[in-house]
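can u pls check wat happens w/ flavin-adenine dinucleotide
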Amino acid sequence: MGDDQTRNTISETDTLNLPILIIGGGISGITSAVELAEAGQEVVLIEKENYLGGNVSHFNNYFPKLCPPSCGLEINYQRIRSNPRISYYTGASLKNICGTDGDFMVNIQLKPRLINNSCTSCGKCAEVCPEERPAKLGRTAGEKAAFINNGLAFPMKYCIDPEVCKREACARCLEVCDYNAIQLDASPAEVGIQAGKIIVATGWNLYNATLIENYRYSEESDVVTNVEFERMLAACTREKIKLTRPSDGLTPRRIAFVQCAGSRDINHLPYCSAVCCSASLKHALTLEAEYPEIDAEIFYIDMRLSGRNEKLLKQAEEKERITLTKGKVGRILPGDEEKGLVLEVEDISSGCKRKDTYDMVVLAMGLTPTPVAAGLKVNEYGFYLPDQPSGMIPTASCKRPMDVSSSVKDATASALKAMQR
Ligand SMILES: Cc1cc2nc3c(=O)[nH]c(=O)nc-3n(C[C@H](O)[C@H](O)[C@H](O)COP(=O)(O)OP(=O)(O)OC[C@H]3O[C@@H](n4cnc5c(N)ncnc54)[C@H](O)[C@@H]3O)c2cc1C
């Protein structure tokens, strides 16, 4: 962050009235935004994706109560809609931050949505759109270039993927849209935002599963990450279809969950990623409740759960079709004649080495930080330190992996901190 020489000096009263900028529109950023706005503060929220909601908006359900993501997100979307103190930008990437505490100038680049605010989300553009987005992280196969975020969209408006759309060479959406909402010639725009404080709520990234070579992860295989699995379950719930494995479209009968994939491992991430044990228990309990034909086995070093999440373990222990095995998975190998996946495990309870075959494997991956702005102080693993000298306030899971409930509490605390000028 350098000083911006070109700006006029503004008085202290003016800086107190400057909005608070929040970078990241996941559950934490949204929470800080609504708390600040309801306390009378002007807020600008920027999100790099086309929709707010972050990772939670892609969940199938969430612990501790295993409720759908709409529970929690919808009420917050309503709070945003009804509060004129919140402005938000989606598809917004940070270009640069200048200035200092109390008086920042932030430039953001807005990618074109190719559909404007007149969209009524009727969906006719997607019906006629001939282009498909490539399958990606739980993205439903066949999703069109004109798309909307999986039913929990905020804003509730379609957008068009500019990397896939053929624009004027196709233009079928233009012919069917009754609201003049299609803008195929829209180009990127730049916006400058003056802000008194900046809350950084950029969340987490997933560790790169291909780096754990002995687990044989690849995008085509039946070894998937827990984030992919979460989104597969969400797509099944949404579209009322059965869970199938990627390689052949058959229903898996036995699914193994491999804990600490990348976490608590000196070759990868030495720290605990905090939410993966609860996430795998949630997945196993969801299978138990909704897929009577599937057995789940969780391989763990030790179960790390906090607060109300403890009860997930108790629930899982009572289920016949869930097995909990204490033991680190050493290797995942292809089964005989390439059928299934063989796990080599050191079973701590029996003291024996086991080899067993599964139809699918879910890797409970480690979580990593999200790099945002140069100049922010980080800990030895790259997560932001809570106290920054710069007047920027990191919040929630960009400081360390944490669950939704802790993220929301932390984001509320950050809102309070930002108001104390
Ligand atoms: C597999 C899995 C399952 C989980 N299940 C549960 C569960 O059931 N219950 C639970 O309590 N917790 C669960 N968690 C944890 C949960 O995901 C986090 O607590 C939650 O996502 C934290 O929200 P957040 O807003 O801090 O971060 P995120 O959800 O990561 O949101 C951050 C947002 O910031 C945006 N962003 C990032 N960088 C920028 C930038 N430079 N500019 C603009 N925007 C940016 C991102 O696009 C994103 O929208 C799970 C985690 C995993 C991995």
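The pocket of flavin-adenine dinucleotide is lined by residues 23-29, 46-49, 54-56, 62-63, 93-94, 201-204, 226-227, 230, 275, 279, 282, 367, 370, 372, 396-397, 402-405, 407 (CB under 6 Å).
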